[in-house]
Design brief:
Shape: rod-shaped
Radius of gyration: 36 Å
Largest sheet: 6 strands, antiparallel
Strand content: 25-35%
Distance between the termini: 103 Å
Strand order of the largest sheet: 1-14-3-10-5-8
Order of helices and strands: HHEEEEEEHHEEEEEEEE
Number of helices: 4
Length: 255
């Protein structure tokens, strides 16, 4: 028996009982320390998980913050969207609508980019002049005077149109393409922007829109006249920040 062994080692009964009691206390403390360690570990894991959840919530709130700003800048016919598709269709007998080739949008996040997934009808070739301008290029908010129609487009029109002043919002980015592909603009400032398929929007003194595609038309139009029976372009358009798409606003308002 352990007690007898303790006695044979020279310990008295009281000493032996004290040693047993001390051993029991040490074992109890070890068990308590083990439980405390497990408790701390569990609390640490819970704290780590809570921190991650709070960070995720913070990021989510950050993502939703632009929606509040968009709500302040939108009114009919402006809409808030995660993506937008614009389709331009032309056939020889149709009447062109410039709104089908232009997107006016509001980017709510500083430093975001516009991503364009472009589909071009492979049966008809026409050089697109993708152009991004500051502001709503239809409005006299960011316009800069370029000169007269004759000066800007190197024409010699003996008409009122030839002497009309041409106004244009600053160009941020432009790219000439003819084929299907995916394209991305440089980073943009927060605010309104205008994207056009056929070059920058220019406005004359009387408010006329002068920059539009001309597949069949008069010689005074500053585009090469291309004989096409039909032409189709589709752009799926998103606004992104660091590869993540953001909500943005699109408007059809022209004045």
């Amino acid at each position: 028996m352990p007690t007898n062994n303790l006695k044979r080692s020279g310990l008295s009964g009281k000493q032996a009982a004290g040693v047993v009691l001390l051993a029991a206390v040490i074992l109890s403390l070890m068990a308590l320390n083990y439980n405390l360690y497990n408790s701390i570990q569990s609390q640490g894991s819970a704290l780590t998980q809570m921190t991650a959840e709070l960070e995720a919530l913070k990021n989510r709130l950050s993502e939703l913050a632009p929606l509040g700003e968009l709500a302040n800048v939108t009114k009919p016919p402006t809409v808030i969207v995660p993506a937008y598709t614009v389709t331009f269709n032309y056939n020889r007998d149709s009447v062109l609508d410039d709104r089908d080739s232009i997107i006016v949008f509001y980017a709510p996040v500083e430093g975001s980019t516009a991503r364009l997934e472009l589909f071009v009808d492979s049966l008809s070739k026409y050089e697109l002049d993708l152009t991004l301008q500051e502001g709503n290029a239809w409005r006299n908010e960011t316009w800069v005077k370029l000169g007269t129609v004759n000066q800007v487009y190197n024409l010699s029109l003996n008409t009122t149109k030839g002497s009309s002043v041409v106004w244009q919002s600053p160009i941020v980015w432009s790219l000439k393409v003819t084929d299907t592909g995916v394209y991305e603009t440089p980073s943009m400032s927060k605010g309104w922007h205008t994207l056009s398929m056929f070059g920058p929007i220019t406005i004359l003194d009387n408010g006329d829109f002068y920059r539009y595609p001309m597949f069949h038309g008069a010689s005074d139009v500053p585009h090469a006249v291309v004989k096409l029976d039909s032409y189709r372009v589709v752009i799926t358009f998103t606004v992104q920040k660091e590869g993540e798409p953001n909500f943005f606003a699109v408007t059809n308002e022209r004045s």
